[in-house]
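Hello,

Our lab assistant flagged a job as stuck in the queue for most of the afternoon. It eventually completed. Since we weren't sure the result was trustworthy after the delay, we are filing this so someone can double-check. Below is the sequence as submitted and the structure that was eventually returned. Let us know if re-running is recommended.
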Amino acid sequence: MMKKLVFATALVGAAAGAQSAEFKLPPFETTKLPNGLTVMLMERHEVPLIAVRAVVRAGAVNDGKQAGLANLTGDAILLGSEKHAKAAIDEAFDFRGALLSGGSGTEQTTVQANFAKSDAAALLPLFAEIVQQPAFEAAELDKLKNRKVSGLKQAKESPRQVAGTYYRSMLYGDAPYASPAAGTVGSLSALQRRDVQGFHGRYFRPDNAAVIVVGDFDPAAMRRQIETLFGQWKAEGPAPQGTSYGSPVADKPRVWLVNKPDAIETTFVIGGAGIARNDPDYVPLQVLNTVLGGRFTSWLNDELRVNSGLTYGANSAFAPLAQSGVFSMSSFTASAKTEAALDLALKTYNRLWAEGKQGGIDKATLDSAKAYVKGQFPPRFETGEQLASLLGDMYALGVDRGQIDNFMRDVDGLTPAKAKQLVDRHFPRNNLQMLLVGKADDIRKVAAKYGEVTELDISADGFKPVVK
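-- returned structure --
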């Protein structure tokens, strides 16, 4: 028998900007099988479609010294099961116009499928097979690994693709959160089939996973089908133990200068510690970040792109994780304009704390950002696929449903006075961390202006300084 907890909250919509506007999650039930598997079912009968998602609490933070292992495993799940070859599974989904995908990030690995209601009986068993019994066929795995290695080599040709990885490495040091999700050329090249099988065996287990189904189905019938397909899944050995994945280190102003000798522009990231995904201030901080750098008419984009022409775009963001997170402002500019762009970005950032007519977030600015955020929020959770993804994040990252159900209330309740308190509490002001990717000979003196400089070479494997 399954233990069942039913949430019966309705989805309610109203015009954006109205004080009474609400957005709440549709009803869904959470159950747990005797083997420990979490099952989340959300009925949505608007269209005859079903989105199913398996979420495993494991990702790059669990790679250890084998960076890229979770990422490789997550993609290799799709290479076929012990009963059906990859070609047969692909044909079964393609023939029905269904979608099957997977992957792994920092803290979770997912397998997801979208198909018509009428195809559930045929495709759900295949989905269950690849989650529980992937084949990791050697030849297919080697081809996948080689493609990923080639992609890693190409990525460093475009600094904007790798700047975030360097930045996280800078802030988290040797902690698990610093592990590059895609791995490095060296670490990925060294991975073997047995490593992928071992990762799957350790972390793909019912007491460390959830199966989420959103769409047009009968809940009792779907419950029985999930129990039939996943109820015999067994956990081997002790369950993975919770651990600390690290917190950002920003004890003094630092600059990482990543040398790309052929660069004609500088890509930069500036910031420091941020928030965890379940932080109670997550929602109002989305509004405040909208003012600073979260939309085209933000302060940063206005100053660095529109008013000065120093760049084609600038933005800021909180990147929250389950236990902590980082905040960053980022852009790029011509090498000769690096100092001007950095100074203007910092000057604009300091407007958050400035007093008087030129500083702080006034009511008109705040109201505009609130209306924008409220208008953007509901469309993010319209489809079954989007809702399944949200439920997966809630499971993997420990996000309470109240953060969603109270979204409009928390946005409406943000005042200029509260905004000032949140700026002081969460936006890093001192000991800013700065990443610069560009031609070191052109910007080395500029870099020294902003903190203690550590030089790296973009051609070196990985995303950390080379220890000599």
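-- support follow-up --
The delay was a queue issue, not a problem with the job. The result is valid. The CA atoms of residues 155 and 448 lie 27 Å apart. DSSP finds 17 helices and 13 strands in the chain.
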